[in-house]
Structures are given as structure tokens and as C-alpha cells.
Amino acid sequence: VNAAVSMAEKYLLENNFDASIVFPQDIPMIRPQDIDELIRFQKTPQLIVVPSRKFDGTNALLRSPVNVMETHYDEDSYKIHLTTAKSRNIPTTFALISRIMWDVDDQSDLEFIMSNIEKPLLVDKLRKILE
Fold first, then answer.
1. Residue 103: is its pLDDT beyond 80?
2. According to the model, what pLDDT value does residue 96 have?
3. What is the pLDDT of residues 30-62, one digit of tens each?
4. 50 Cβ partners below 8 Å, 6+ apart?
5. Bridge-partner residues for 93, per DSSP?
6. pTM
7. 119 in a structural domain
8. In CATH, what number is assigned to the domain containing residue 16?
9. What is the mean pLDDT of residues 2-20?
């Protein structure tokens, strides 16, 4: 993950983008309005962190400027991102946006999401997959 983010970061810097947002692929409930809400928090320079529901991972990382800090995914990223930002005096905002926080790392996460889905047909399909 970190290598892919580094490649994207290089492209963004070469093309004069002033910010980036990293989302993992396991946040199935995210909606466009959640991203809009995250962007409304943005100031420069800054780091915005949306933790996972269990506060053991980073489910969104907005960096402004793009290279304000490197990413640290797959290794207790939430704590590492916060510690790194603090050690470098990077202004950091925590955004608790529920649909971004709801990731699927294990069966308990999937069951939690299923209990919060507003679409019964989707829940039925997921239950059949789990059987």
C-alpha cells in the first residue's frame, strides 16, 4: 500500500496538486457526502486522520501539502500517523465520519456493518455469502 501511495504522491507533486486523500479499499459504506465532509475540514498545512472504528487503522488520510508526511499503512497506521505528525509538529485534525470508519478487516467488522445497513436485500446477500 505504501509503495502505491508513494507512486501517486510523486504524480501529484509533479502535477502541482496541493493535497491528497488516501482511502483503503475496505470501507464499503463510504458515500460522496462523506468525502465532502472530510474536505470541509481542510486547512494548509495539515493532516486529517479518520481512524477505523476500532482505532487501530487509518481509513482516510488527507495530507496538505501532499508531501507533508509519508504514509504508514499495514502497521497500526493510526498510531503511527499520529505519532509521526506530533513529532513533526504537523497540525492534525481527527474526523470521526462513521461510514468512513466502518472498515471490514474481519468477521466482526462485517457483522457490525450488516447491523447498520439500511438495505435489507444487501444484508440478505451478505448473510448467504457467510453461510
1. yes
2. 96
3. 999 999 999 998 887 799 999 999 999 999 999
4. 38, 58, 59, 60, 61, 94, 95, 96, 97, 100, 101
5. 48
6. 0.87
7. no
8. 3.90.550.10
9. 94
Residues in the chain: 131
In a domain, 123, yes or no: no
The Cα 79–Cα 77 span in angstroms is 6
For residue 127, pLDDT over 90 is answered with: no
Residue 129 lies inside a defined structural domain of this protein: no
Q: And the C-alpha cell for 55?
A: 482505532
Q: Which residue has the cell 502497521?
A: 75
Is 117 a domain residue?
Answer: no
How far apart (Å, rounded) are the C-alpha atoms in residues 104 and 114? 11
Q: What residue numbers bound the domain in which 18 lies?
A: 2-104
Q: How many domains does the chain have?
A: 1
